[in-house]
Amino acid sequence: MAVTIRDVAKAAGVSASTVSRALSIPDMVDPETRRRVTRVAEHLGYRPNRAARGLSTGRTGNLGLILPDLANPFFPSVVKGIQLAAHQADYQVFVADSDEDASTELGLVRVLAKQVDGIILCSPRMKPAELREAATLAPVVLVNRKERSIPSVSVDNVGGMRQIIEHLSAQGHRSVGYVGGPRSSWSNRERVRGLRVAANQNGVELVELGHFAPTFDGGTDAAEGAVISGVSAVVAYNDLVALGLLNGLRDRGVDVPGEMSVVGIDNIPMSAMVQPSLTTLDIPKDLAGRTSVDLLLRLLTEESAHVARARELATELLARHTTAPAPTTSTRPTGRSRTPRL
Amino acid sequence: MAVTIRDVAKAAGVSASTVSRALSIPDMVDPETRRRVTRVAEHLGYRPNRAARGLSTGRTGNLGLILPDLANPFFPSVVKGIQLAAHQADYQVFVADSDEDASTELGLVRVLAKQVDGIILCSPRMKPAELREAATLAPVVLVNRKERSIPSVSVDNVGGMRQIIEHLSAQGHRSVGYVGGPRSSWSNRERVRGLRVAANQNGVELVELGHFAPTFDGGTDAAEGAVISGVSAVVAYNDLVALGLLNGLRDRGVDVPGEMSVVGIDNIPMSAMVQPSLTTLDIPKDLAGRTSVDLLLRLLTEESAHVARARELATELLARHTTAPAPTTSTRPTGRSRTPRL
DNA sequence: GTGAAAGCGCTAACAA
DNA sequence: TTGTTAGCGCTTTCAC
Predict the structure, then answer these.
(1) E strands along chain A, which residues?
(2) Strand order in the sheet with A261-266
(3) In chain A, at which end, N or C, are there fewer CB atoms within 10 A of the end residue's CB?
């Protein structure tokens, strides 16, 4: 078996409790002993067993992260932001991929709840009631969606949609299509909402082309309808969909951007790798990750008596915080219209 | 605090141990009591605390996964394969991204070691000695590299390179370039080795163009050298590099595949999303994931007395296993030469 | 400043 | 078949 706190204690000629203190509350122990203990611990290669520590402190030092699809290039950046922030605070991250299955997600929350101090939940499809149940099982921070009384980190979808519509409108487009994501997706609903408002304000006609899978293939499927609809520009639910759409349009001999403009959302790495690059709305992904960790850790260190109030507070804070680095269209200079020909 | 085993015991009028048995060794308890206990447990919403269980059993029910870069589209498939297999066996997966920093990785192993039953390590850059140290801290399975006495799952790089060279040779190429990955990467060394052998056997000249970052930008950087070298075809360390290379070539006005052919390795999703699709060598990524979990779990359930032998055995098994579904070039029909014009 | 003792939630002998 | 006891590795009173 590995080296335990007692091994260190014995070797240093002190009690286990002293070792414990020397390592976690250094000032409570004589400098002399402290040094001896540290040396011995290091020499023996002692690593505290966090699970055991968790048992007595109620703190595991772990964070859980649940997301719908790691293969969606949107998420790795978020995960990286989270891991970085977590590691800096000496937390480990448990990542679980639910495979786009919202029912799995609640199960994952249950399994994780006991092994982590808090959970970051990216679940565009979970029902509000499920979210609330999840929040009773462990401290939860929502990413990319909001739910009353649960702290969350989200982006200003409405503002982002306004930017897109204004951009298109300035280019002279009067009729814009929207290739929607899953009906049950919170982000999708927000985006539709934002688009409607902005279209209305800019005298642009918005044509909703239906709901599609949030994938490359979903975009391909949407091409036919986009062509038929007669719009001159199309906004896609996300970049993956936009790329698939481009693919489908090309297959139909539609020249992009000559005959039709396409705009994506997310600014995934792939969007910059096609030529010319895809016009897209940037979402500060790693910042969202970092912010969610910060928020979660703040909740955890809050006096438990004040947690309820803290939650409300935190929600407000975040709304402002994430709105600040507002989404902007990416800025690759590629001529008049930056929509790709691919 | 959450509901514990004692709460259930009390409510069911039995002892804690009975509850424990009823839930994990059902046949050791009277059907009547068992039913009662189960009912009460369910009713109270009891969830065993796995960390606590781990403390007494020595089994945590968690697996660790360390990989260099989640943002590399190669990995999500691997992760998904791993998660699926792990969840099916009722294991959770701890994912840690080392950000391509091999020195971080050993640290991650140390931190994770106590909290997991075993670790799946994708570390192309770690030194052999570090790998062996890692293997002493926890049961370890290596992915995509081999090291004496440590079980591993890897693909038949040499065979794959042969396929690529034969493919190019059949197309009439006599001089082929290789855009190498990091000097310290195990896969890169294997690939070079395989290419040299295959080139030699097929009467093809192999021009090694140097070492580049395993990224899109790395590929872009390699374009200049590729052009100068005068080869008619280029193999890239992986698909990301290949895509960057295509980008760089296009910027230099080189027609692909008219003037130069490009072949990638990995078959990442993105490769099928460009038009026409990138010619690439498929690596069975999710299978690699599944296999590594299977292997690890087998090690864990092995009688400890036989573990040493089991390790050797397992290594052998795997070598055969992963060679079987050998890499094949992807099969998108896109005309004579399938190298993309992008 | 330090040690002894109790306990976190659970399982695994050992008795009964 | 079931309950009692001890203990996993650690922290945390409570004495000294």
Answers:
(1) 62-67, 92-97, 118-121, 140-143, 152-153, 175-180, 205-211, 233-236, 261-266, 279-282
(2) A205-211, A175-180, A233-236, A261-266, A279-282
(3) N
Q: Does any strand D atom come closer than 7 Å to the Cβ of A58?
A: no
Which domains does chain B possess? Answer: 5-155+285-311 (3.40.50.2300), 157-283+318-331 (3.40.50.2300)
Instruction: Please report where in the chains the tokens 């460009």 appear, as a residue.
Output: B274
- Rounded-to-integer distance, Cα B254 and Cα B246, Å: 9
Collapsing DSSP to helix, strand or coil, A261 comes out as strand
Nearest to B317, CA basis, from B141, B67, B131: B141
Within 7 A of a protein CB, which nucleotides of strand C?
1-5, 7-13
Distant-in-sequence, close-in-space partners of B143: CB < 8 Å, separation ≥ 6:
B78, B120, B121, B122, B152, B153, B154, B288, B289, B292
Q: Which of B266, B270, B286, B342 to mutate to test the interface with A (most CBs of A within 10 A)?
A: B270
B24 close contact with A: CB closer than 8 A: no
Residue B262 Ramachandran class (φ > 0 left, ψ -120 to 50 alpha, else beta): beta
CB pairs under 8 A between A and B: 112
Q: What is the DSSP string of A268-309?
A: -HHHHHSSSPPEEEE--HHHHHHHHHHHHHHHHHS-GGGHHH
- Listed in order, strand segments (DSSP E) in B29-117 are 62-67, 92-97
State the amino acid at position B280 in one-letter form. T
Paired tokens of B147: 């090291």
CA–CA separation, B264 and B267 (whole Å): 7
Q: Which two tokens stand for residue A48?
A: 């505290």
The number of beta carbons lying within 10 Å of the beta carbon of residue B238 is: 29
